[in-house]
Fold:
Amino acid sequence: MGDKIYWLAWHNILAGQARKFWTIMEHFGTPENAWRAPDSKFNALEGSRPSDNMEMLVRRRNCDLSKVASYLNNREITVLFYTDADYPEQLKNIYDPPPVLFLRGRADCFNEISVALVGARKATPYGLSVTENLARELAGAGVVVVSGMARGIDAAAHRGTLDAGGKTIAVLGCGVDVIYPKENGRLMGSIVQNGVVISEFPPGTPPDAWHFPVRNRVISGLCRVVVVVEAAERSGALITAHVALEQGRDVMAVPGNITSKLSRGPNELIKQGAAPVLGARDIIEELGLTVIEPEPPLMSNEGLKLDDNEKLLLKLLNFESVSLEFIVQRSGLAAGEVMSALMFLEVKGLVRQMPGRLYALSGK
Structure:
């Protein structure tokens, strides 16, 4: 195991503080040299004060190297070091790459072209449908989809990719053995089987709030393009977009309703020069891929038998959710007829029902 024990020990002490790690390595030359150096030597670190180093040095004294070594023997979790051949090449080129990554799943996902789909946790039906469709089509083109496995847009990005049989990477703000949010347990299991779940935070690390802005640089760092689907004016997705620009990545955005708060983020990015995304073809062309399959329409009824009532309701619905009462009023049909038609449209995968008897197109 040799030097890797010291790499891992320092990384665990400084998890989420990659810049500090690299400053220490630059000063001492190797992790082992830094580990064996007396406390006083750390006062000479560039830009640091004794008070800044106090907690770090206490952690060093209390660190059990044999416990650190146990991470390397864990059969379910792989430890990937910056110096390993399998470490993602894209990530090596950012300003502060994680010295160590913990992962569950398939490391071969790192060798392929990747796109990040990010956005709001409290996404609209429009945002969820668009994200799932983009993810499906990107996966169909052989692109790996990266996101953060949060609620909303992130989860939709992973689901759409998996539905298409594609590969997806989930970058967590907690340990790779911690399910967060809890409702994503089954999704996480599917990602481990068909992609990879990664984190720079050691196993068992809880999802503290400050971890998520830190992990956003990893999401963008793994990709060539970052696409923002829905985001408020101040949000984690916009942080990811701005970090992506600093890293030299391309940023694109899905335009939205100008009256929606969740469209202000992507619309503002477009105003500032981000390329608008009107379909997966736009992203694929931005990647410079030469083989572009014909893009299927956002939603197709081909091959499905619809009666007159179902056809009428489809014309009334879009990706913004509306109430049952609204549909009854606009359609002119009896409530029973509307409910029956909506039920069959759900079965056919054309409409989805949200809590509160709200309905919208599914986008499938």
